[in-house]
From TrEMBL:
Pathway assignment: Amino-acid biosynthesis; L-arginine biosynthesis
Chain sites annotated for binding N(2)-succinyl-L-ornithine: 141, 175, 235, 275
Annotated EC: 2.1.3.11
Chain positions recorded as carbamoyl phosphate binding sites: 46-49, 74, 109, 146-149, 271-272, 299
SUPFAM superfamilies: Aspartate/ornithine carbamoyltransferase (SSF53671)
Protein name: N-succinylornithine carbamoyltransferase
Catalytic activity, reaction form: N(2)-succinyl-L-ornithine + carbamoyl phosphate = N(2)-succinyl-L-citrulline + phosphate + H(+)
One Gene Ontology biological process: L-arginine biosynthetic process via ornithine
Length: 315
């Protein structure tokens, strides 16, 4: 079993319930991972993913090896048949096969480069490991998806579930740097599995990949989208059509206390790290309705559920 995307979840409802059970007794399966090793390979920076996934593995009794691949590993070649007479020192064929001998599960973080849309959509690094590794692979955020994050988001929303069908709003917010679409993509895919009134709001031109958003509702008026919302999930992403570009940095899209007043006393969510007073004002993120720290805590239980399922599957 691999965990590459939200599509690997057979029943979101069931997985969320199982994760909440793990959260109650995180050390219950401490023996499951005995003598098993998780190898975590990072091609990009991380705080939450690195520590929560490591903690999840330790809760299961696993050994953990972490490698910051970009600074510590050989530069990899991903093209089959490449004549490697410049640049890359090692082919993914050998790298993935070798790491598979040291680890029982390989977890990979490799973001979008945001230069070549086709290359990012092909998920070169993640798919390279998936093709040549001989052990299960976990996506710790790839070019187009962050399924551990959105599983944690689903767990968090379940903890704050409303009596009525919730209105959930994914809102774009400005950011000084061009960011990938991975988090919103997986959030959209996860929301498509929920019984909710789900709305995506962003400036015109900032549409996500239509193959992912499918028939999810898009509202270009942020104030209108916020009306009666139960959850506000803020995130920046760079332009998908004008690939990787920042074509809008309008501060009117920042989530403010006035905008939150339009909602049904909504909870505020963000995957973190967050730029304060750019994405969201201090007043909102420091308010009682902000659940971003609890959301980050649930990253451990999302990762632990995934690792547990892989370990059980491998028995
Ligand atoms: N949300 C998230 O993935 O955080 P990190 O980038 O710090 O791992």
């Amino acid at each position: 079993m691999n965990y590459i995307s939200i599509q690997n979840i057979d029943s979101l409802n069931k997985w969320v319930k199982e994760a909440l059970k793990i959260k109650k007794k995180p050390l219950k399966n401490k023996k499951l991972g005995k003598n098993k090793t998780l190898g975590m390979l990072f091609f990009n920076s991380s705080l939450r993913t690195r520590l929560s996934t490591q903690k999840a593995a330790l809760n299961l009794g696993m050994n953990v090896m972490v490698m910051n691949f970009t600074s510590e590993g050989w530069t990899l070649e991903f093209e089959d048949g490449a004549i490697m007479n410049s640049g890359a020192s090692e082919h993914i064929k050998e790298a993935a096969a070798v790491v598979s001998q040291y680890c029982d599960i390989i977890a990979i973080r490799a973001f979008a480069g945001l230069v070549d849309k086709e290359k990012d959509n092909a998920e070169t690094v993640l798919m390279g490991f998936l093709k040549y590794a001989t052990v299960p692979v976990v996506n710790m955020e790839s070019a187009t998806g962050h399924p551990l994050q959105s599983l944690a988001d689903a767990i968090t929303m379940a903890e704050y579930k409303t009596e009525h069908k919730p209105k959930v709003v994914l809102t774009w917010a400005p950011h000084p740097k061009a960011l990938p679409q991975a988090v919103p993509n997986s959030f959209v895919e996860m929301m498509q599995l929920q019984d909710a009134d789900f709305v995506i709001t962003h400036p015109e031109g900032y549409e996500l990949n239509p193959e992912i958003t499918k028939d999810s509702k898009i509202e270009y008026d942020q104030d209108k989208a916020f009306e009666n919302a139960d959850f506000i999930y803020a995130k920046n992403w760079s332009n998908y059509k004008e690939y990787g570009k920042i074509t809008n940095s309008d501060p009117n899209w920042t989530v403010t206390a006035d905008k939150m007043k339009l909602t049904n006393n909504a909870k505020f969510m963000h995957c973190l790290p967050v730029r304060r007073n750019v994405i969201v004002t201090d007043e909102v993120i420091d308010s009682e309705n902000s659940i971003v720290i609890k959301q980050a805590n649930n990253r451990t239980y999302a990762a632990q559920l995934v690792l547990q399922k892989i370990l059980e599957n491998g028995k």
